Amino acid sequence: MGKLADALEKSGYGEYGTDRAATTDKGSPPDRTDEVKASPHPEPHQPTVSQANKKGRTRRTKGDGGKWDERLFKAVNRDSYLPEIFKTLRSRILHPPDGVEVPKTIMVTSAIPKEGKSFVTANLGISLAQGLDQYALLVDCDLRRPALASLFGLSTSPGLVDYLRDESDLGDLIAKTSVDKLSLLPSGETPVNPAELLGSARMEGVVKELSSRYDDRIIIFDSPPFQVASEASVLARRVDGIILVVREGGAGKPQVRMLMETIGPDRIIGVVFNAYTTNVVERSLMKGYGYYQQTY
CA 42, CA 95: separation in Å to the nearest integer? Predict the structure, then answer.
C-alpha cells in the first residue's frame, strides 16, 4: 500500500492545512445569485474539472468547486429541519454506546433505487465536515448510476474506476468540494464490470488505506442499491458500519426487513427515513427551533 500512501501525500490529501477548499460556501442554484450575495455563504467559483499531468494522464486540479445541485443547496442553506436531522445522525456516529468504537468507514445504501441514498450521503458528509474535529471523504461507489459529483457541481470523471482499472494515481483523483474539510472521490466513467471492480483486492486496499491513514477522517461510501447490484454486498463486508435509507412510498417493509437481516442488525448504525411528509405542527416547531438557533 506504499504507492497508495505516496499518492495521497503527493495530492496534499494528507496535509490538513492544505486539504481545505479555498472557500467554505455551499454554492447556489443559477437563478439565486442575488440571494446568495446577501447571505453568509458566498457564491463559489466555477470549477475547473481537470488538467493533464506530466505523464499525460488526467488529474484533477486542486480546489475544484462548482454550483451545487439546487436540492442540496436548499437543504443545507434554507431548510431548518434537515440539517438538524443530520446533526443527530452525526452525533450517533461520533458518540456510539460504551464499548463501541467510532466507525471510520461507513456505507450508505438502500434496498432499491431512487430512495435518496446519494442525497443522504452528501448531507451526512457536509454535517461531519462542519463539526469541530472531523474531516470527511465521500467515495462514490455507485459505478452504475453515480450521483455525488453532480450534487457538488463536480465532474464524475476521472475517479475511482480509473484507479481500480487503469491504476491511476489515487491522489490525482480526489477532489475538494467547496465545503471546508470535505473531499470527494468520484466514480469515474461507468465501467462494463462494476461488480468485478468493487470486489477486487485493489478496492479492498483502498478501503483499508483510507480508513487507517488518519484518525480524524471518516470515509463514507455511497454504494449501489442492495437488491439490484451484487457489489453492494461485497462492499458491506469491508466497512465498519452501514446506514440504510428508506424512502416514504419506496421499498416495502418485507424488502427492508430482508435487507436488515442480510446485513445484520449489529452492523447498522441507523435508518434514515427519507422524504417524510411533515405536518403543520412539526413544520411550525422546527421553524421556531431554527430561529432560536440563529438568534441565540
Answer: 32
Residue type, 87: K
Residue linked to cell 440563529:
294
The three-class DSSP label of residue 90 is: helix
Say how far apart CA 244 and CA 59 lie, in whole Å.
33
What's this model's pTM, rounded to 2 decimal places? Answer: 0.74
CA 112 to chain centre: 19
pLDDT: is 132 or 80 the higher one?
132
Q: Which domains does the chain have, with CATH numbers?
A: 2-12+29-295 (3.40.50.300)
| Cα separation, 271 vs 20, whole angstroms | 30
Please choose, from the candidates 188, 127, 189, the residue with its C-alpha nearest in 3D space to the C-alpha of residue 159: 188
Per-residue cell: 13: 490529501
Band of pLDDT at residue 210, cut at 50, 70 and 90 = confident
| Cβ-Cβ contacts under 8 Å for 49 (sequence gap 6 or more) | 60, 61, 64, 154, 155
d(Cα 206, Cα 235) in Å, to the nearest integer?
11
Q: Mean pLDDT, to the nearest integer, of 16-31?
A: 35
Give the model confidence (pLDDT) of 145-195 as tens digits. Answer: 999 999 999 999 899 999 999 877 888 899 999 899 999 999 999 999 999
CA-CA distance, 254 to 260, in Å (whole number)?
10
Cα separation, 267 vs 274, in Å, equals 20
For residues 208 and 294, give the distance between their C-alpha atoms in angstroms, rounded to a whole number.
Answer: 40
- Give CA torsion, residues 234, 101, 86, 270, to 10 deg: 50
- pLDDT band, residue 77 (cuts 50/70/90): confident
Q: In DSSP terms, which residues pair with 244 in a beta bridge?
A: 109, 271
